[in-house]
Predict the 3D structure of the following.
Amino acid sequence: MTQVLLNTDESVEDKHLADFFRCQGVRCFAAGGFFWRSVGLRLFTPVPSVRPISLSSQDLRSMWKQGALFVHFSSGDNGNSFPGYSWLVEDKNYGFESIKSRNSRRVISRAFKHCTVENIPFQLLIENGAPLIQDTYHRQGRNCKDSVLERHRNYLRAAGSNPLFEAWGAFVSNELAAFKVSFTYRRTVQASMVFSRGDLLKHYPVNALLFVSTQMEIRRDHISCVSYGMCPVTGEPESLVNFKESMGFKKVLLRERLEINPLVRPAFRRPLSFVAKAIADPFCSRSEYARIVSGVINTLRGHTKHVGAGVT
């Protein structure tokens, strides 16, 4: 069951966002002055993830009581943290001059010879988005079962009736080649998902899609930044990092923390963590839960290298 904890003075945006997650059956709550949602396996991240957060021991106890097993966030505290990053666009004049690479500018210009980009109704994605979702999953080596597609359809249905959400599409010869879903919350536009058709990638629809949508979003008076997220515990492939940099997105270096519920913390200490990872890794392409378990363990191992101590 979804669990939502909101104060009576929360804004209308908070209520809209809580309603959206409630429709998805996603656990969410407010803690430490931020809104948190589970990305799977009760791993909670803040929305939006653009500012450092300080959580007290009381905040964490409250989050454990709300059912969190893991909490991943950017931290304003240097102690017990490790290097990380997030992707932001804050320049109100974002445009071709923001693209530093001549080759990247050439690619975007080439994309506009074949692609048109526009705001689109969610019903179009509900009816036509499945092939793009399947194609993207398969290119990433991930399993796209019927249940995965239905989860995405439910997401799109809920987004279509929520005023915080919008959709953008890139078209090649009137065919949907790529789409992006984002939502606006606390003066931040947060990119939520991007999918594309593999057979049309030669026309660079994703480049056109992200360039136009980002440019239009950041220029809105009430928007302070467009966020393409903090690096997840499951990591980002180098090709995706290079792509975001090529699009002129700013890689903001920060400190991260990964807190673990004391009830499950022993399972992530050595040697049990080695066993858990050995079990999870073979299933990463088929299970989001396995990817998260493996990612949490990888993150903790990287953490210990930086703090010079074991997991406590």
In short: The longest strand covers residues 175-185. Residues 1-10, 306-312 have pLDDT under 50 and may be disordered. Residues 288-307 form the longest helix (20 residues). Residues 52 and 76 are 5 Å apart (CA to CA).
